[in-house]
Amino acid sequence: MKKLLLIGASGLLGNKIYQSSKDRYETYRTYNFHKPKFGNISRLDVTEKNNVSKLLRDVKPDLVIDTHALTNVDYCELHHEDAWKINVEGTKNVAESCKVNGCKYIFISTDYVYDGYKTTTYSEKDKPHPINYYGRTKLIAEKVIEALDMNYIIARTAVLFGASDLFDKLPFPSWVMQQLKLKNKIRVVMDQYSNPTLVDNLGEFLLSLYEKDRSGVFNVSGKDNISRFEFSKMLAKEFGLDEKLIEPITTAELNQPAKRPQKVALNVSKAEKASGVKALKLEEAIKIFKNQLQK
Ligand SMILES: NC(=O)c1ccc[n+]([C@@H]2O[C@H](COP(=O)([O-])OP(=O)(O)OC[C@H]3O[C@@H](n4cnc5c(N)ncnc54)[C@H](OP(=O)(O)O)[C@@H]3O)[C@@H](O)[C@H]2O)c1
Predict the structure, then answer these.
(1) How large a percentage of the chain has pLDDT more than 90?
(2) Of 156, 119, 174, which Cα lies nearest the Cα of 279?
(3) pLDDT tens digits, 153-174
(4) Residue 295, in any domain of the structure
(5) Residue among 48, 160, 172, 220 whose CB has most ligand 1 atoms within 8 A, to mutate
(6) Is the dihedral of CA 165, 168, 171, 174 positive or negative?
(7) Based on the structure, what is the number of domains in the chain?
(8) In the chain, which end has fewer C-beta atoms inside a 10 angstrom radius, N or C?
(9) Domain that holds residue 160
């Protein structure tokens, strides 16, 4: 069995990949602040270079999937130093250790490396141009990895969702459903478009790309491009919640510290071809999500 080290396994994506890979791989995983209730897991802060090197030397993984990040976009905008340390330097520490140990490195990047000014879809050939600091740190991390001349996959993904009982951190779709269940009115932006991505589908892409020995940069997300407002309404409909509680607002009205790209539609055909996995239509993805929540 190949050895897989999952960094950031206490997060939404990392935990999901752990659940779906643990029977196929000898799996090791890390958390930083939020220790999951069950199973063996090591603590790792990726900004501590010596600890990263030691863990990789001890585990000797064939593959590292690194899902760590400071993901709060507004926090990153207001705290550049923290964002740089975790998203750039932390990534560099892990990538360098992977290179030294000769293992494959999968890094999770974001659709926020694109500016969102284009009206058609973004492929990997489009020039990235982030418009907020979070996006900048992720793009610089990508460049650090590329400069290391190592065996890597960079997966640019978008708005993650999936069933999870992890802590109190709620990804956007789960927050929408929580508020609607409480019958609270919510305001959701109608002019930010992205490709919502079920974490199970993303995990399947990543493992398949690895198993087929692919490398390079891939856009990996759900198939459909939709506004956050329309996405929230789809969730409400599927879960029998009151969609009238969702009020559309504009990004300008929200006045968030970090700018958001207005419309990033990811073209995922390169990843689909290379992996043999199909990007899920949003309707299918929401149905899977619902089944998982009901279990
Ligand atoms: N969520 C989205 O909509 C979205 C969209 C595009 C791209 N992405 C990218 O996808 C990846 C996974 O996202 P996610 O939503 O699953 O993230 P998440 O739920 O916020 O989890 C982030 C993980 O990173 C860990 N972490 C944070 N700082 C760390 C540090 N200094 N050292 C080690 N681990 C650290 C966290 O550990 P603790 O919780 O234990 O502290 C957690 O396990 C990220 O790279 C993100 O940039 C996410």
Answers:
(1) 91
(2) 156
(3) 999 999 999 987 665 667 888 8
(4) no
(5) 160
(6) positive
(7) 1
(8) C
(9) 3-290
